[in-house]
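I'd like us to work through together how a protein chain folds, taking it slowly. To get us started, please write out a protein record for me. Label the sequence line and the structure token line clearly, so we can match residues to local backbone shapes. Once you have written the record down, we can walk along the chain together.
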Amino acid sequence: MLKPIAIATAVSGTLDILFAMILTVFFGREIGNMLRYVASGPFPAAVDMGAPRARSSACSSTFL
């Protein structure tokens, strides 16, 4: 029972962040800035992080 829930969570989280990236590029903004903004919810210090740490923080906050 847990495996389908985990798969659905991973798929929906991936589609969510992918669509956010597409919209960010469509509106002419930088993906790194969007990821830092997303990650600043659960990790307030993410605004001052570099792009690699922002990516990992944003991805982890997507699955929280």
In short: The helical segments are 2-26, 31-39, 51-62. The chain has one domain: 2-62.
